[in-house]
Amino acid sequence: MKSIRIENVSKSFEGEQVIENLSLTIPSGEFFALLGPSGSGKTTLLRLIAGFEFADKGAIYLDDQDITRMPINERKINTVFQNYALFPHMNVFENVAYGLRVQGMDKKLIHEKVMRFLGIVNLEKYAHKSVRQLSGGQQQRVALARAIITEPDVLLLDEPLAALDLKLREKMLLELIDLQYELKTTFVYVTHDQFEALTVAGSMAIMNTDGEIEQVGTPKNIYEFPASSFVAKFVGTTNMFSGKFTRAGSYGTVAVDGLGTLHVALPTHQEWLHDGRTVIVSVRPEKVEISKQPLTGFSNCMMGEVKAIVYHGRSTQYNVRLANGAIMSVFRQNEEHFPSDNKVIDYDDPVGLYWQDKNVTLLER
Amino acid sequence: MVKRFREIFQQELPFFIGVPALVWQVLFLYVPICYLVFLSVTKVDVDGVAFTLGRYAEFFQVPYLRVLLRSLILATGNAVLCVSVGYPIAYYLAVRAHARSKSLLLMLLMLPFWTNFLVQVYAWFFVFERQGLLNTVLMRLHIIQEPLYILNTTLAIWIIMLYCYLPFAIMPMYAILEKFDVRLLEASYDLGARAWQTFLRITLPLSMSGVMTGFFLVFIPSFGEFVIPGLAGGDKQMFVGSLISHYFLTAGDEYTGATFTCLGALVLATAALTLRYCMNVMIKRVR
């Protein structure tokens, strides 16, 4: 269990800059997620840490050791590949034993250790099966066991669940969390799936399409207090309004064209906030109440017409057209089997949307 | 009636398409082979035609066995050389070469096939002659004082054999390595393996079928080769191919020729099967 420190790293491929001057610290023993859209350079960053590629500029440290130019096979950093990269000519046992065999470990010790690690991933019974006979989830476990058996300082996971179906993915995520807790190894989990990242990560970094890190923090922090509109949009769904900011005592107002004035609470960091500045207001759909009857006690209220209803099971999404033509999404929990008539909302119903100023995020960009 | 015929024809189309090839194969391969086997065990004299295994027995003498052994050594050695020299080339072509240079390199590899086999062999004469390219260059560079005598030696045979058969070894290995998933190499290095461990445990086992195909594509025709030993070796040493061509073409004795051909084929088949068995055992060992 070691930390990784990336300092001002740049990497380009055939003239195309993928990562520029990137710095990031991944704390020791953390389950860290690297979340970003495709093409954000997160896999490149992972390959730089693993040693498959070398950085053009900058340095990478494993604790205090400079590993920027260290060959792959000397780094105690292992990878679980997206396509698993299992050796097709070896059975499950041989695949898992590979790392120990190339170290020249004693045969008996290898056998014990492999069986122990196959036990950890619940594959003891499959030791002598060919990897081709296994299901996707089982192959995933073999790849995992193979990568952790040499007890690396850091384990890198490159979209490891991308090929699995949803149910299996949810199950594997929970198993990964348990495994990380048991091993205490630093895990770096690369994904473009915000659900996976939010589920597993102790802390996470969001990368944007330019290969820059937008925000680092706990999942809750990133979801509730996104640092930019990119993060607000990429992690979860949100409604955004842009308008002119005016301070009004302990809170602020934002004048939005065609909609009127929104009331917003002031963020902790507000050096950048001054009257007259254009700001973005982000309102998460689940923080908004939708009702046909007028509600009281909310600092923000907006009227509109329901234009789309999407039933999700545990909740229903209503897309409401506001006075200026913009669409605002609202989630409402489906609490009852038989809601009373005044609660049933239909297409084209005029509705009111209500939310509190403290449940809103003010964004600089 | 016509309709029914058409139906059958359409259903059995693959069979009808295959018929000409099948006829060709039977007429020009299986029938001659059977005829050859028949000739090898027949004796014709004043009493007429009779069955005999006697000529097979006659070949179990040192000079003939030496010819068989010499051909076996040449075939095995040439196959080993072609595979060893060809593997890095195939690997480079399949894994390392850029897509653009790859097609050019492949064309260069196939280029010799555009010229006649004999021309390829004779071309080497210009290289190996007393006044040839090799001697001229080496003497100009003062590496040697006297011209090297290569033509009409065993060395010339081996060099030209390697040259002519190399593409046959490269192609099947290239075809296998082309499909090789290089991410497996990354996985191997990632798990701490060194370059030679990765080669022995991953690359070689996964390309072994190509290596075997390449080996036997060289081994089998090399065994019967008589043009190269004849031209480049100056016909000083007898090989299986030269002896067969001697019986058929020079001596005009097709009965003895047929016997020796069949004997050679038996030896070849036994050797090939044995070699394949040994290789399979070796592969299991490495793993």
Characterise this structure.
- The complex is a heterodimer of chains A (365) and B (287).
- Chain A has 365 residues and is α+β, with helices and mostly antiparallel strands.
- Chain A has 2 domains: 4-233, Rossmann fold; 239-363, OB fold (Dihydrolipoamide Acetyltransferase, E2P), CATH 2.40.50.140.
- Chain A is 23% helix and 35% strand.
- Chain A has 8 helices and 20 strands.
- Chain A has helices at residues 42-50, 92-103, 107-120, 136-148, 166-183, 194-200, 219-224, 229-234; strands spanning 4-13, 16-26, 31-35, 57-62, 65-66, 77-80, 154-158, 186-191, 203-207, 213-217, 239-248, 251-256, 260-265, 278-283, 289-291, 300-311, 315-322, 327-333, 350-355, 360-363.
- In chain A, the strands form 4 sheets. Chain A has a 6-stranded mixed β-sheet with strand order 6-7-8-3-9-10, sandwiched between helices.
- In chain A, strand 7 (154-158), helix 5 and strand 8 (186-191) form a beta-alpha-beta unit.
- In chain A, helix 2 crosses helix 3 (107-120) and helix 3 packs across helix 4 (136-148).
- The longest helix of chain A has 18 residues, at 166-183.
- The model of chain A has no long low-confidence stretch (mean pLDDT 92).
- With 287 residues, chain B is mainly α.
- Chain B folds into 2 domains: 1-40; 58-286, MetI-like fold (Orthogonal Bundle).
- Helices cover 77% and strands 3% of the residues of chain B.
- Chain B is built from 13 helices and 2 strands.
- In chain B, strands 1-2 form a two-stranded antiparallel sheet.
- In chain B, strand 1 (42-45) and strand 2 form a beta hairpin.
- In chain B, helix 8 packs across helix 10 (195-224) and helix 9 crosses helix 10 (195-224).
- The mean pLDDT of chain B is 91.
- Classes of the chains: A alpha+beta (365), B mainly alpha (287).
- The interface between A and B is medium-sized, with 27 and 18 residues.
